[in-house]
Write a structure and sequence with these properties.
The protein has 425 residues and is α/β, with parallel strands linked by helices. It is built from 12 helices and 17 strands. The protein is 33% helix and 24% strand. Strand 8 and strand 9 form a beta hairpin. It is globular, with a radius of gyration of 21 Å.
Length: 425
């Protein structure tokens, strides 16, 4: 690919202007110290600041630097593994409550966009497409599960119906949702930050937390300052590293890649995705794509457990895009970027308490666009003395990823297995 591909993500290039926040250079006190200025941390900060708490957020880089500002922008329904895995652990009644919480996560996005006037290109409509005819029965089972939960506005599309909606003929059917969709994730994240700051939150960027000290008063220390607080919320997700030893191994960073084409023009863009839906395959290794406000195609996928980014990301992703839309051979790639998402071993988010006054949530497993904000809200509820819903989700048991220092090569091998399974299914 030409060297003119922008090193910025499309989201960075099209983000609303936002003032840089200061670096922490002093010792401060707060009611709540939040680590991470992504969807999780900013959601909690907004809830708590509006309730009158003194909130400080520490961000290692910039607001939305992690998955919150890099993801595919797809607003999904429920949890990655579906209801059965949650029901197996919590029972049917509590699993239904979990699904209701996930539904509330999407409503929370709508409410906040309206309340804070966040301009982030929100669109509804989502197509789960099947690459193989043999996967059609899985769509019916999926719809039946949602029907039983009272989740309406879904329909199964056969191949001819799907072909009318997409400018590709490689898929054999789809499950369409009217109550899932897509948006500009970084602009939404910046909108949350703006609202949180307006409510009184202090955000410090480029303030890497080096260590945490627990106790009746918790302390987060950076290179040039510290924050002491009554409570702490950890919302670092895939970028937590080894900051908290108890959490290392409970999630695995997975690299996902996205490219954005040059503007295609409204008519050509509409010929690819007629109704401006978000689209994702049902394979374990997911391809996903959608249109932007300025009629570009965003195409993502090719997840990697190795965390090693290809040297020429645009060239790496382009053939995958052309396998779906071969008519785009003449189209330039303007942006190519990657980033980490965090998965858990069972694909259900991991949340809980490290200490009575230290909460965490992470491992959204590809569905954090909606769920991360909701988990942030639930941790804020805990601080305010309403822990019932958070404690329900915290009952889900998680096994650490096996392998210790060799877990990454083990998971690379696992990824190869799933690629082969997808190809043969």
């Amino acid at each position: 690919m030409p060297a003119s591909i922008d090193a910025q993500s499309y989201y960075q290039a099209s983000a609303h202007s936002f003032p840089q926040q200061p670096r922490l250079k002093s010792d401060l006190r707060a009611d709540i110290c939040i680590i991470g200025a992504g969807f999780t941390g900013l959601s909690a900060a907004l809830e708590l600041a509006e309730a009158g708490y003194k909130v400080i957020v520490l961000e290692a880089r910039e607001i939305g630097y992690g998955a919150s500002g890099r993801n595919g922008g797809q607003i999904c329904t429920g949890f990655s593994p579906g209801q059965q895995r949650i029901e197996a652990q919590l029972g049917k009644e509590d699993a239904i409550k979990c699904f209701a919480i996930a539904e509330e996560a999407k409503k929370l996005i709508v409410e906040r966009i309206a309340k804070y006037k966040i301009d982030c290109d929100l669109k509804w409509g989502y197509l789960h497409v099947i690459p193989k005819p043999s996967q059609f029965e899985g769509l019916r089972e999926w719809k039946n599960e949602w029907d039983a939960l009272g989740y309406a506005d879904t329909q199964i599309l056969n191949k001819s119906e799907l072909d009318e909606r997409l400018g590709t003929r490689i898929y054999h059917g789809a499950l369409r949702e009217g109550r899932a969709g897509h948006f500009h994730p970084l602009n939404y994240c910046l909108g949350l930050a703006k609202a949180a700051i307006a409510a009184g939150t202090q955000i410090f960027e480029n303030s890497v937390v080096l260590n945490i000290e627990s106790g009746p008063v918790v302390t987060a220390r950076t290179a040039q300052g510290s924050v002491r607080a009554k409570f702490m919320i950890i919302g670092c997700n895939a970028y937590i590293g080894k900051l908290v030893s108890k959490l290392y191994g409970r999630i695995m960073p997975v690299t996902s890649y996205i490219i954005a084409t040059e503007p295609l023009g409204e008519n050509r863009a509409k010929s690819l995705i007629r109704d401006n839906d978000a689209v994702a395959t049902t394979n374990f290794i997911v391809d996903y794509f959608r249109l932007t406000r300025d009629s570009r195609l965003l195409f993502g996928g090719r997840a990697s457990y190795s965390t090693l980014e290809p040297p020429n990301l645009g060239a790496y992703m382009r053939p995958r895009m052309l396998s779906v839309f071969p008519g785009l051979k003449d189209v330039k790639i303007d942006h190519a970027w990657g980033g980490y998402i965090a998965i858990t071993s069972n694909r259900i988010p991991d949340c809980g308490r490290l200490e009575p006054n230290i909460y965490y949530a992470h491992g959204y497993s590809g569905q954090g666009v909606a769920l991360a904000g909701m988990y942030g809200k639930l941790m804020a509820e805990c601080v305010k003395g309403q822990a019932e819903r958070f404690d329900l989700l915290a009952r889900v048991k998680h096994l650490p990823f096996p392998g210790g220092p060799i877990r990454t090569p083990m998971l690379v091998a696992a990824m190869l297995f799933y690629r082969i399974r997808d190809a043969l299914s």
